[in-house]
What we know:
Layout: H1 12-31, E1 35-38, E2 51-54, E3 66-69, H2 72-80, E4 84-89, H3 97-109, E5 111-122, H4 127-138, E6 142-147, E7 150-156, H5 163-170, E8 174-176, E9 186-188, H6 200-211, H7 213-216, E10 221-225, H8 231-239, E11 244-249, H9 252-264, E12 271-275, E13 294-299, H10 307-314, H11 317-320, E14 321-331, H12 335-343, E15 347-353, E16 356-362
Parallel strand pairs: 1-2, 1-4, 2-3, 4-5, 10-11, 10-13, 11-12, 13-14
Antiparallel strand pairs: 5-7, 6-7, 8-9, 14-16, 15-16
This protein binds S-adenosylmethionine.
S-adenosylmethionine is lined by residues 1, 193-194, 199, 202, 226-228, 231-232, 248-251, 254, 277-278, 300, 302, 313.
Amino acid sequence: MRGPDGLNAHDPGVRLLAKVARARWADRLKAGGGVLLAHCGEVESVGAGATRWILDVREREGAVHRCVDTGREVEALAADGGPFHLALAWPRAHLGLDFSQWSLAAAALGLAEDGWLLCSARKQKGGKRLAAFIESIFGRVEVLARGSGYQVYGASRGEGFDAAAAREACAVRYQWPLPDEHRPAMASGPGVFSRRALDDGTRVLLVHLEAHARRFAHCTHVVDLCAGAGPLAVGAAHRLPEAQVLAVDSNLLAVHDMRENIARHGLDGRVHARLYDGMPPARVPEAAGFEGKVGLVLMNPPTHAPREALATLVAPLRDYLRPSGVVCAVVNRAGTMRGVFQAMGAQGDAYDYPGYTVLEARWP
Ligand SMILES: C[S@@+](CC[C@H](N)C(=O)[O-])C[C@H]1O[C@@H](n2cnc3c(N)ncnc32)[C@H](O)[C@@H]1O
């Protein structure tokens, strides 16, 4: 599957960023060495030597530049100071201000002395706040260009640079309870779905699991597809204490958080977090032991994904299901997902909850 949320090399904000960078750093840009693309996808005129910091495993596909994973890299930079002379950022507002700030702070820590951070943002969509944030880390910020509703803010790492403030912004974490509040809290951070609280749809699916627990009691293998920080995987593992759980997400930070949550809940060895674009084909080592044995698939699918993307996500599940196995997907508008299941020849039931529907799909 291609195209994680919102990356667009042709967006006017990205083009403006490229234009400003070309005007001052043409040679560096052409070679790409020492250039960091901080969560902004490809940027025109940036040579293949650049490094792209990615959030989602799908961003690797077709990437011209070396892709490095979010997470561990930040910790390494925070310790050593950075190797980059120029960092380009085009924060995607829909991923949240905390993630934009996290990305900018991490990019700032990646800069060498005198290195520049350029950030393209819409004034109407939080640009001013991002400029203030950049100023709080670098000590100053300039507007280097304006156009198409965007501003390109720039700052260089010099005397006023506050590394401690940047590290603090990278360390932002949230904790939130599962419905069973006696269990340890879940932990998550910027860049991850529903990072501050349990999602309402997820809560509904956990209620559904509880209400139908007797039907699912004999499941030895469970899948949580699109698992995020893992509330469904962890909740199911507690509810079905004999079950092995395979939990898959394509977001690097989500899988990082999910591993932390599995450990917090003492579920290492029973819940297996996997970084994958969609369901891994049943025979790959990441999914070993689940093929043909899964009695229950839980799924809170990405709401904005087009129908074809959802169909691609769901298609491999049949190879995993045992004969009586069922897929339970929670949705707030049932139409698209129901159509996906029907097109795949599934039979199903729909359970209505306030604001949500749980679709159960099974194959005769
Ligand atoms: C609605 S969220 C649900 C997250 C989690 N289950 C929860 O309830 O909090 C959907 C998740 O699907 C993941 N996702 C989107 N496309 C994906 C794909 N192609 N493969 C794997 N995961 C994907 C997103 O990263 C996101 O974490």
